[in-house]
Amino acid sequence: MNNKINMDHLNVCNEKDSFTIANKQFHSRLMLGTGKYKNLYEAQRAIITSGTSIVTVAIRRVQYAKNIGKSNLIDGLNWKKLWMLPNTAGCETAEEAIRIAQIGREINKKIGQLDNNFVKLEVISDSQYLFPDPIGTLKAAEYLVSKGFNVLPYIYPDPILAKQLEDIGCKTIMPLGSPIGSGQGLQKSYDIQVIIENSKIPVIVDAGIGTASEASRAMEIGASGVLLNTAVAKSKNPIGMANAMKLGVISGRKCYLAGIMTRKQKARPSSPKDGLLKII
């Protein structure tokens, strides 16, 4: 009888579970936004506690050149340990998003990340529900990819659009779980699963996550990572919630790697029927 343990199975227990976007490796699968916090200190502590590798910053809300050395979140974070993901939040057209993406790349250079061509692409013309514009997103993505950007597009969970964006050279797909800032969780989990199954690039669930269990669920269905902001920033204890989200993402990823059992319609006994002691 061979009692040797297959060490490959123990990889599930390994705390180091990095993933790669555009040939750059990241140690955390949780990405965190920087908006909506009560103050700079709270934002800094939450970001550090989360263990995130990637921090997304809305470029339209940043006046970097005017705030150097002042109480500014960009100045207050250690960019030697964090990777900036500029985003085009607030842009209603492809043209606006392209201009903001270019400004974002310049800010990356100013903080010392000279090789950082990442941009989270958001084109949102719907001011009420904040659903992303698929046509504007595709148009902007195609242009930015041609200019050497590593584009991470935020989309409604449409598997066809996701494949089109992958085919033109985007580096991830970022489908929403539910509307931005709603905390409604994974309303479109089936569509996200289809995107995951058909994608050869990382799929990051972005928007709508409200609890650690929802972050965990996103990872359980095979997402490469989760990006969230409001769930942490608007909680009663953002630092505690940042830690909860960190653990939720880790837990969900480990669950996915371990292989989730198939659901059954009927109960199945835990103990075998054969070999039971007969009671006389």
Which keywords apply here?
transferase; TIM Barrel; 10 strands; 5-stranded parallel β-sheet; 280 residues; 14% strand; alpha/beta
Give your account of this protein's structure.
It catalyses: [ThiS sulfur-carrier protein]-C-terminal-Gly-aminoethanethioate + 2-iminoacetate + 1-deoxy-D-xylulose 5-phosphate = [ThiS sulfur-carrier protein]-C-terminal Gly-Gly + 2-[(2R,5Z)-2-carboxy-4-methylthiazol-5(2H)-ylidene]ethyl phosphate + 2 H2O + H(+). 1-deoxy-D-xylulose 5-phosphate binds at residues 181, 207-208, 229-230. Catalyzes the rearrangement of 1-deoxy-D-xylulose 5-phosphate (DXP) to produce the thiazole phosphate moiety of thiamine. Sulfur is provided by the thiocarboxylate moiety of the carrier protein ThiS. In vitro, sulfur can be provided by H(2)S. This protein has nine helices and ten strands. With 280 residues, the protein is an alpha/beta fold. It has one domain (20-258): Aldolase class I (TIM Barrel). The strands form three sheets. The protein has a five-stranded parallel β-sheet. Strands 6-7-8 form a three-stranded parallel β-sheet. The longest helix is centred in the last third of the chain and has 21 residues, at 238-258. It starts with 18 loop residues before the first strand and ends in a 22-residue tail after the last helix.
